[in-house]
Amino acid sequence: MTAALNKEIHKKTVLMVTTMSSFLTPMALSAVNVALPTMAKEFLMDAITLSWVATAYILTAAALLMPFGRAADIYGRKRIFILGTSVFTAASFLLGIAWSAELLIVFRVLQGVGSAMLFGTGIAMLSSVFPPGERGKVLGINVAAVYLGLSCGPFLGGVLTQHMGWRSIFLFNVPLGMVIIVFSLWKLHAEWAESKGEPFDFVGSSIYCAMLVALMYGFSLLPRMAGTFLIAAGIAGICVFVVWELKTGNPIIDMSLFKTNKVFTLSNVAALIHYSATFAVGFLLSLYLQHIKGLSPQNTGAILISQPLVQAVFSPIAGRMSDRIEPRIVASTGMSITAAGLFLLAFLETNTGMWFIISALALLGFGFALFSSPNSNAVMSSVENRLYGVASSMLGTMRLLGQMFSMGIAMMVFAIYIGAVEIVPQHYQMLLKSIAVIFTVFGFLCVAGVFASLTRGNLR
User: Fold this and answer.
1) Following CA atoms 322, 25, 21, 395 in sequence, which dihedral angle do they give, to the nearest 10 degrees?
2) How many angstroms from the chain centroid is the CA of residue 359?
3) DSSP assignment, residue 146?
4) In 3D, which of 167, 164, 184 has the Cα closest to residue 92?
5) Is 334 left (phi over 0), alpha (psi -120 to 50) or beta?
6) Over its length of 460 residues, how does the chain's per-residue pLDDT go in tens digits?
7) DSSP string of 175-218?
8) For the chain, what are the domain ranges?
9) Residue 319's closest CA among 129, 144, 128?
10) What is the fold of 2-187+252-454?
């Protein structure tokens, strides 16, 4: 009775704390995209190095999310959550005082470490305290917070960059992070560690991190031979990792979930494909709007806000729908709409009108809203309670891997069409061609993702 009562008391507290963190990290991520051209000018960064400012964060978070998700199950989700917020906040301060492009990338790595801890615990904490019948609603709220952060990020990033400099974007995170830390220590009393006492898979975690780094760094080196070699090494690393995880007693990824749980497997595959096709949109349009269209950071942010704003409005509605309608139907419809928006963006030209861009972004936002929270609901509802941490981390990993591959595709196309040069007017035509190629690839990726989403099977 006491445990049940404590769980009920902590429901709203857990929702509030995780919602605050779900707002902070995407806001910081999307705000940076608008500031990238300004950073490039200050540190004289070429297109590939500039891509690494965005990619270093995602790569680190993707590589460490599963290990930290498993650590949260063993050592306590609240503990990892608070530690992650602390690391993220400290890294934001260091980014605000970075004095070189190299340090900027190093501190982005540190920020990715903190984000991995947050991503691996938030949804798991919510799923620990909310029963299946209420889960779609709270996951919808959580996803809405993510998209509200994404909505505020471009506009806030543009305003701060234009009036206070790009460093203010990172320093803005510091007081917000401190509020979350204080509130968590003060109000969050329960702890969740259903796998307490079980050993941690250090070997599997090391192989996992190494293979992702090899893959991503390989993308940035293409078309050179070294890039091909690293990608091949990364693919080989995947095979080694799967073999190790199947034979070890306490894996960071329970491979049996993929073998026996079709809904879990295909929902994660759908998430991977969807994020692979959409994450680089903000990065690419920031370059397009500021270089090709000549907009200021503030006006660029105002344009980019249209996609996440639509996502924030419709995500709670989609979450509630997935409690009544099969999640695969809602999510598959959303991915189809996303594909349509991506194909529209593939037609961008120098003289493309702003209303065309805003309409395409709004379409993307609506599709993303219909996909994300129902897909999250499908993943979390397909496993038992003791696996919430693993399922949450796997879902977050698919998101981050997708984001990483999205940037990897962008980096690869940039490397082939533009190369390691600064983005100056004489290279604008190749930039435009690269953007068209990338959006076309993204559109076809989403079409493939619709089939994975539709064939996952029913939950009810």
Assistant:
1) 40
2) 23
3) H
4) 167
5) alpha
6) 455 555 555 677 778 888 888 888 878 777 887 888 888 888 888 777 777 887 788 888 878 887 887 787 777 778 888 888 899 999 999 998 888 888 999 999 999 899 888 876 777 777 777 776 676 677 777 777 876 776 677 778 888 888 888 898 889 889 988 888 887 777 666 666 566 667 778 888 888 888 888 887 777 676 678 878 888 898 898 889 888 888 887 787 777 777 778 888 888 888 899 989 988 888 899 889 988 888 888 888 888 888 877 877 887 788 777 777 777 788 888 999 999 999 999 999 888 889 999 999 999 999 988 888 788 877 877 777 667 666 776 777 787 788 878 888 887 888 788 766 677 777 788 889 999 999 999 999 999 888 877 776 555 5
7) HHHHHHHHHHHHH------TTTTPPP-HHHHHHHHHHHHHHHHH
8) 2-187+252-454, 201-251
9) 144
10) Growth Hormone; Chain: A; (1.20.1250)
Q: What share of the chain is helix, strand, coil (3-state, %, to 5)?
A: 85, 0, 15
Q: Which of 3, 8, 31 is nearest to 158 (CA)?
A: 31
Q: What does the block give as tokens for 320?
A: 């509630």
* CA atoms of 266 and 243, how far apart (whole Å): 21
Distance (Å, whole) CA 227 – CA 243: 25
| Residue 172 CB neighbour total at 10 angstroms | 20
Give Cα separations from 280 to 223, 360, 403 (angstroms): 20, 15, 7
- H/E stretch holding 388 reads helix 388-417
Provide the token pair at 265.
């497997």
Using alpha carbons, select from 119, 117, 127 the residue that is nearest to residue 14. 127
User: CA 410, CA 283: separation in Å to the nearest integer?
Assistant: 9
CA 449 to chain centre: 17
Neighbours of 450 (CB within 10 A): 21
User: Residue type at 76?
Assistant: G
> What's the CA gap between 86 and 13, in Å, rounded?
19
Contact 224, 343 (CB under 8 A): no
CA-based torsion, 184, 186, 187, 188: positive or negative: positive
CB 154 within 8 Å of CB 407: no
